[in-house]
Amino acid sequence: MKKNTKGIIVVLVLTVVAAFLIYKQRKSTIKEELRDFAVKDTAKIDKLFLADKKGNKSLLERRGPAHWVVNGKLKARQDAINTLLTTISNLSIKYPLAKAAFNNILKQMAAISVKVEIYQEGDLEKVYYVGGQDMDGTGTYMMIENSSTPFIMEIPGFQGYLTPRYISDPVDWRDKHIFNFRGNEIEELKMVYNVLPEASFQIKLNKDYSVNFKPLNISPVSFDTATVKEYLTVFTNVVYDTYVKELKKTTVDSIKKTKPFHEIYLKTKTGQQYAIKTFPVKAKEGATDKDGNPLAFDLDFMYASLNDTDFVYVQYYTFDQILKPVQYFKVGGDVMLKSQ
After folding, report:
1. Which one, of 268, 266, 295, lies nearest residue 281 by Cα?
2. Do the Cβ atoms of 334 and 328 come closer than 8 Å?
3. Angle, alpha carbons 78-80-85 (nearest 5°)
4. Which of 240, 232, 243, 238 is nearest to 329 (CA)?
5. For residues 293 and 96, what is the distance between their CA atoms, to the nearest angstrom?
6. What is the mean predicted confidence (pLDDT) over 125-145?
7. What is the DSSP code string of 178-203?
């Protein structure tokens, strides 16, 4: 038993030594610029371009501190930007790729890789290609442009592969905020509940921040001004979950033509106007409630049309904070609107 253990240890030691010698030899024969992936000074990075084989292209440009835009128009997700910059800075070679595997990996990368261009202060600093994951899912195939030598890359201490951080679809880069306004930035808000019309209301803020509150389908009610103002503060962080990508355009158009659950119209004091409409999502086949009754609609997600252009999923959990009926604003009121 002891001999077997010693034999295993010897084999492991020899394997590690052999790998080190191969790496050292290969490192000495490969030009430095063809294995140097990391860009350490990310503060100077002002532009990133990512493109995949499906035709997706994302141009990310720094417009200020913590302010990036995607494809010249829309605000980019700062969390994803931070993750990508950290990745770019900390890339390290996990181990060289065996020469026998070169051809297969090169073919894979030719089919699925993401091209990455990194610019610092307007100048192109580095270009490389990002492929898929290695056999154990902890390394990522990458190759510098104009090289024929792929490497398996990692971030030391991180368990996982890095491809998902290199987002090429501009839709996935977009900032997810539907509303991101402080209460005193809002001039007018109109909430229309088509399922419960008597719950609908309108709020207008005057220049002195005094409130005009009006139910839309019932007689005027005595409302609590403090509750109205506190309610408006939740519009600082209303986000969508994901884009609806799996439905055909004809299906989306058909859904939009149906009567929405909710219609939300918001106007800011600077003149920005937003129109949000929500629609039910059909429950998955066989879905039931806690009592075993079949469900017609999903209890977690709705569709939402954003200004009649973007079509996304939103969570009830997120929207419950703004889906308040008229009764909520009455003195002593605390009622949540239930749409289903």
Report:
1. 295
2. yes
3. 95
4. 232
5. 57
6. 94
7. EE---GGGEEEEEEEESSSGGG-EEE
Output the six-digit token pair for 158. 């991180």
Whole-Å CA distances, 2 to 10, 12, 16, 302: 12, 15, 21, 63
Buried-state track 271-291, b at ≥16 Cβ within 10 A, e below 16 = eeebebbbbbbebeeeeeeee
Structure tokens at 340: 């289903």
Instruction: Report the run of H or E that residue 255 belongs to, with start and end.
Output: helix 249-256
pLDDT bucket at 107, cuts 50 / 70 / 90 = very high
Nearest to 315 by CA among 238, 260, 263, 200: 238
Annotate 216-241 with three-state secondary structure. CCCCCCCECHHHHHHHHHHHHCEECC
**Whose structure tokens read 């604003």?**
329
> Cα separation of 234 and 319, whole Å?
10
CA distance 50 to 124: 13
- Tell me the pLDDT band of 292, cut-offs 50, 70 and 90: confident
Angle at 332 between CA 234 and CA 207, to 5 degrees: 50
Q: In this structure, is the dihedral angle defined by the CA atoms of residues 114, 119, 120 and 125, taken in order, positive or negative?
A: positive
157 with 94: CB under 8 angstroms? no
CA atoms within 13 A on the CB side of 334: 1
94-103, 113-122, 190-199, 233-242: segment of lowest average pLDDT: 94-103
pLDDT tens digit sequence for 39-88: 999 999 999 999 999 999 999 999 998 899 999 988 999 999 999 999 99
